[in-house]
Design brief:
- The protein is an alpha/beta fold and about 170 residues long.
- The chain folds into 2 domains: about 130 residues, Rossmann fold; about 30 residues.
- It contains 7 helices and 5 strands.
- Strand 3, helix 4 and strand 4 form a beta-alpha-beta unit.
- The structure holds 5-O-phosphono-beta-D-ribofuranose.
- 5-O-phosphono-beta-D-ribofuranose binds next to strand 3.
């Protein structure tokens, strides 16, 4: 799957069936020119691979791992068990329970093993990417500057929407 040189962010997912639902992660990272790699691995089907990946991630230069899974979604938690890197959990929507299963499995971590969990669906994938960018920006002034500009752009967008709405209500 997609990967760029010297990745700073590792995107992992439980199945290739997750990819179409979480592609927004990659789009957000690309928007900020953050290098990332993408891999499929499963906490249940390939537990050794997850263990090896997470254990070696810091040594390979990764700074953040984004772990997406659906259903009994243990990928983020298992990755967090094997590394001191920040783990962002991305619960994937599911046909049977709408992703509530994924959300609870990802977010309800026991103490001492944090997973920063973003929303199911909606802005979840994008926010996972942006949160990774924010973490990286703490040690990267150029990235911090881009984030400041991004925030200003968001403000302008809402101000414009407000003005447009007010204008439309006048008639
Ligand atoms: C999870 O099981 C995956 O993250 C995926 O969301 C779900 C279904 O996987 P497949 O049966 O499509 O491979 O581990």
């Amino acid at each position: 799957m997609t990967s760029t040189e010297n990745p700073q962010v590792g995107i992992i997912m439980g199945s290739d069936s997750d990819w179409p639902k979480i592609k927004g992660v990659a789009a957000a990272l690309e928007e900020f020119n953050v290098a990332f790699e993408v891999n499929v691995m499963s906490a249940h089907r390939t537990p050794e691979v997850v263990s090896e990946y997470a254990s070696g991630a810091l040594g390979r230069g990764l700074k953040v791992i984004i772990a997406a899974a659906g259903g009994a979604a243990h990928l983020a938690g298992v990755a967090a068990a094997h590394t001191t890197l920040p783990i962002i959990g991305l619960p994937v929507p599911t046909p049977d329970l709408g992703g509530l299963d994924s959300l609870l499995s990802t977010v309800q971590m026991p103490g001492d093993v944090p997973v920063a969990t973003v929303a199911v669906g909606m802005g979840g994938p994008r926010n996972a990417g942006l949160l990774a960018v924010q973490i990286l920006a703490l040690a990267d002034d150029g990235l911090q500057e881009k984030l400041q500009q991004f925030k200003q752009m968001l403000t302008k967008k809402i101000v414009t929407k407000n003005e447009k709405l007010k204008e439309s209500l006048k008639t």
